[in-house]
Amino acid sequence: xxxxxxxxxxxxxxxxxxxxxxxxxxxxxxxxxxxxxxxxxxxxxxxxxxxxxxxxxxxxxxxxxxxxxxxxxxxxxxxxxxxxxxxxxxxxxxxxxxxxxxxxxxxxxxxxxxxxxxxxxxxxxxxxxxxxxxxxxxxxxxxxxxxxxxxxxxxxxxxxxxxxxxxxxxxxxxxxxxxxxxxxxxxxxxxxxxxxxxxxxxxxxxxxxxxxxxxxxxxxxxxxxxxxxxxxxxxxxxxxxxxxxxxxxxxxxxxxxxxxxxxxxxxxxxxxxxxxxxxxxxxxxxxxxxxxxxxxxxxxxxxxxxxxxxxxxxxxxxxxxxxxxxxxxxxxxxxxxxxxxxxxxxxxxxxxxxxxxxxxxxxxxxxxxxxxxxxxxxxxxxxxxxxxxxxxxxxxxxxxxxxxxxxxxxxxxxxxxxxxxxxxxxxxxxxxxxxxxxxxxxxxx
Length: 445
Description:
Order of helices and strands: HHHHHHEEEHEHEHEEH
Structural class: mainly alpha
Number of helices: 10
Number of strands: 7
Helix content: over 70%
Shape: rod-shaped
Strand content: 5-15%
Largest sheet: 3 strands, antiparallel
């Protein structure tokens, strides 16, 4: 009986414990059901949030594609403008060559014009000189003729024995008249007349009793004829020295004048074309200078901003050196990393130069984005901290352009979305490995 009582008590205790465990299980089940409800609610909220994010992602992708298309169109427009600018440069270079060739032709024409003018002036002076010499010779001949006429009139009153001399004088007068029509025979006729006069004087002295002194005195009266002969000889020699007279000089002068007029009109056309080309080149130069100044100003602002972001401080600038003309000046780069003074790029350390060059590249890309960009170990000289800054800056622009980086730095590889590697496990045999890191990261976490 006592044993049964103990067994009953033990069963009651076990039953009570079972009831307690059952209550605990029910309580736990209820709590789990509440937790499941909360989790279900959170799951639904997560699904809603995921759906919303997917909508936003699709919207962002559409906006990204639209922006990418717009960037592409802008890039095409910029390329077209660059080609137009290159065409303008080629046109300006061609125009410069045309101007130089025109100037050479103009100089040649001017020299020929000057030579023709000098030759024409020389011929004109010779004509004037010949005309003056001829006028002088004619005047001296007329004076000699007048003296001979006076001599014959004075001898007319003398004795009949002297009439022979008058006859000889008449013949001399006829000979001088013949010299007027035949200019080339004047010299010989004058010499023959002088000889005849001398012979007559000798005959007068011998036959008429005229003394030698009287005959010489008479001969002295015709001294101007001898001077005329000498002057005539000198004039003839001067005319021969001048060479043959060009009877076509007037016609040549008219042709030369017409040619000079044609050349002058050509010169005016060339001058007008040169002026127009100079104006076009001036406008192109002015446009290029203005565009260069605007672009340099914008890049300078971007350069200082990107430099400050990459270096966490400091400043940088682009300067023009060496020339007043912006198109001919050299471009200098000065930078001031934090804690240092402003100095030329060549005075910085290797890592600072690399990061400064990267800042300048991003400044240009910021002004004129490109569809994609290739970097070949640009960060090889940077330390790990600056590599992290570089990759963060690259990812900032990854939404608007694609970057292809050739690198051996681990930090750069970790920041990439896709990774391609080339290995050579066997000599002469290469293998290409690829990995999409953007999808592999969640598993790594």
